[in-house]
Amino acid sequence: PGIRPAGSAQDDQRRILTPRQALDAGSDYLVIGRPISQAADPAKALAAVVAEIA
């Protein structure tokens, strides 16, 4: 599934999980692309993801 932080657009992903849901489902690694790379402030977007999973 696509990993999308809570409140992010689904974009072209059919199945999505938040980072927390993915970790709770057993993921060891998360690949998060557009929600960070295309954010107006990528550092802030990354910090929000880290805060969500911390």
Low-pLDDT sequence parts: none
Strand count, sense and barrel status of the largest sheet are: 2 strands, parallel
**What is the residue-averaged pLDDT?**
90
Distance between the ends: 21 Å
Structural domain count: 1
Number of H/I helices: 3
Inertia-based shape: globular
Please give a handful of descriptors for the protein shown:
54 residues; two-stranded parallel ribbon; 2 strands; RibuloseP-bd_barrel; lyase; orotidine-5'-phosphate decarboxylase activity
Summarize the structure.
The chain has 3 helices and 2 strands, in the order ββααα. It has 54 residues and is mostly helical.
Any overview of this molecule?
It contains three helices and two strands, in the order ββααα. It is mainly α and 54 residues long. The chain has one domain. A two-stranded parallel ribbon has the order 1-2. The longest helix has 12 residues, at 42-53. The protein is globular. Pfam families: OMPdecase.
